[in-house]
Amino acid sequence: MAVKGNMAKNTSTPKQGDGTPSLTAEQYLRLYYYMRLTREFEESILKLYRQGKIVGGAYTGNGNEATAVGSAFALEPQDYLFPMHRDMGAHLVKGQTLRHLMLQHLGRGNSLSKGRDGTGHYADPALRIYGNISHLGAMVPMAAGVALASKLRKENSVALTYIGDGGSNVGDIHEALAMASVMKLPLILIIENNQFAYSTPVAKQKAMERYSDRALGYGIPGFTIDGTDIDLVYKTCKTAVERARRGEGPTLIESVTMRMHGHSAHDGAEYVPKDLLAEWKKKDPVMRIEKLLTDKKILTPTIKEEYEKKVFAELEDATQFAVDSPYPPAEEAAVGVYAD
Amino acid sequence: MAIITYIEAISKGLWEEMERDQSVFLMGEDIGPFGGAFKVTKGFLQHFGEDRVVDTVLAETAILGAATGAAVVGMRPVAEMQFADFVTTGFSQLVNNTASVHYRWHIPCPMVVRLPSGAGIHGGPFHSRNPEAWFFHQPGFKIVAPSTPYDAKGLIKAAIRDNNPVLYLEHKRLYRHIKGEVPETDYIVEIGKGDVKRSGTDISVITYGSMVHMALEAAEVMQNEHGVSVEVVDLRTLMPLDTELIYGSVRRTGKVLVAHEDNITGGIGGEISALITEHCFQSLDAPVKRIGAIDTPTPYSPTLEEFFLPNTKKVITALQDLAAY
Fold it and tell me: How many domains does chain A have?
């Protein structure tokens, strides 16, 4: 099988977008909305954490918004999403409401997990979203299983999942890709190479040039792309989705980004060099889409203001709704281990 | 009623459930054209096709994770571990994902993991494990361990129909050693219900799997040679335990031997003993006694393995101790 992708010319520069427009003005504006929503939602989460209203961990995907939003935008309603903790934008694009995401983070009784787990750790079968667990890599075999079910039932659904640069070393990933590639399962794995796994720099996670090189070992296409370029993320994922839908099997995409915040809200990330952050700040994905749409004359100051109003109003509603919602009754801890 | 082997009963149960329900499918290593390492799925591929008999790569994490994924979206996968020992390779998927799916996600996870278990076949340290205790401790699984062909078929069918992950322990030494009457009609053995395999009045043996047969042999010897009446309670399901059946038997006899092939320390016999002590203390005429394999890896050489494992003789000795107490 011919292996496509850009791994043959293995240079350290990720593939850059060529500026070809991939979407309509209306679609671009939806992307902009989700990008802003993701950014502002996560800022709210950090605020709630500092206020002591989030009792556990709080994670953000600041710097990763284009990857999360652009990838999920390539999915259809029948497709399955297995997001990771830097992919809040993917939840939103797939249709999750801010209210539900807030309830989850605040551990409320009316959250989708009913307070059994926090953050994005929930499932919403109606939207076909299956959140991650804390064991990195653990969702990839499950996503492969959902892709297998789709294939066996001839559903033509695709499963999209993610992992980080550190998490990509977990053996589950290898086993899942070994299985998915042999069975030609409709699975897409995005390795979000955001330069740090907690405090460990990516140079201490891998010896090869690019994560997409690993695709060669599975006989599947591998791409390394600039993960702050939403156009490129969308186009690359769309290609992978179409390939998966044709029954040609999985694709591995390395999306190169920067984790602009610490591992979680408690982590000041002093180990990240300041000049590295400054360099990546110039490629801030939210700033990039604003510039892209402004240049295309899709985003005007008036439209921008409208979107901001909408985003902040929705956030206020969701935050208030979640804060006002009660914790689950204590005795509910004891029920629900088994299904009837 | 046909007389068939334990392994044939498992095959028949699987076959009938696959005929009954299109969402049931099998996955595992070498289960297709080869029919599985023990031939449980021989002929299945030809009849059901490769979409229902899914031969996989050699990767237990992938098998168990994929089965979990397929189950949460409404399929009913039956995953075969070639040997129960190898379930350890996919341990993280089972305990972290599978076991807690329903508690966290409120979605059923109807899957079965078939675990060819047990020693006494000269399998050595890595083809002999009894894995029940590892999973007994983790909330979220149902665990069954049939001892007879009747129970083997009834329990595999019940396991497949259950909306929870069920670990199905099939003892390799029973596969072709044990024959019994098995109805060709559709029936299940309810999960969570034990069975008194022999009634008695003096001592209860609480056991399961391969040890049921040793306990029955020992009970016969005790009756014939020592005039001691031994009741043999076959748990059949290890999670959830049929505590009413256990307590009822112990309250009748007042003496109890908890017997399993798994290592003694940390084995589920410890939990059963604790439950009996908590709930039946007033009825006990002797301390609860346990018997199991010694606390070493499973050795290979026949002399070593025989020393390692419990057997009928050792059960008789334990019963004599209890009778004399």
Answer: 1
DSSP notation for B109-120: ---EEEEEE-SS
Give contacts of B140 with chain A, Cβ < 8 Å.
337-338
Kindly list the averaged pLDDT for each block of 10 residues, start to end, along chain B of length 325: 96 98 98 98 98 98 98 98 98 98 98 98 96 98 98 98 98 98 97 98 98 98 98 98 98 98 98 98 98 98 98 98 98
Chain B nearest C-alpha distance from A88 (Å): 18
If you search the block for the tokens 């053995």, which residue do you land on?
B189
Between CA B72 and CA B81, with CA B75 as vertex, the angle to 5 degrees is: 90
B49 inside 8 A of chain A by CB: no
Instruction: For Cα atoms B19, B82, B104, give the angle at the middle one, nearest 5 degrees.
Output: 75
**How many C-beta atoms surround the C-beta of residue B325 within 10 A?**
11
Token digits of residue A221: 């296409």
Structural domain for A182, as ranges:
25-50+58-321
Cα-Cα-Cα-Cα torsion B35, B37, B40, B41, nearest 10 degrees, comes to: -20
Catalytic residue among B102, B122, B127, B177: B127
Domains and CATH numbers, chain B: 2-182 (3.40.50.970), 195-324 (3.40.50.920)
B96 CB neighbours in chain A (<8 A) are 133, 135, 138
Domain at A158, CATH number? 3.40.50.970
Give dist(CA A250, CA B261) in Å, integer: 44
Q: Shortest CB distance from A149 goes to which of B64, B70, B110?
A: B70
DSSP character string of B295-310: SSPPP-SHHHHHHHS-
ipTM: 0.95
To the question of pTM greater than 0.90 for the whole model, the response is yes
Tell me how far apart the alpha carbons of residues A36 and B277 are, in angstroms, rounded to a whole number. Answer: 62
A13 within some domain = no
Which tens digit of pLDDT belongs to each residue from A171-180?
Answer: 999 999 999 9
- The residue assigned the tokens 């804390």 is A134
Q: Is A80 a residue of the active site?
A: no
Searching chain A, which residue's CA lies closest to the CA of residue B55?
A: A183
Closest Cβ opposite residue A116 in set B103, B107, B108? B103
Of A10, A32, A13, A14, the closest CA to residue A23 belongs to A32
Query: Does residue A11 sit within a domain?
Result: no
The answer to whether A133 contacts B65, with C-beta atoms less than 8 Å apart, is no
- Strand-pairing partners, residue A156, are none
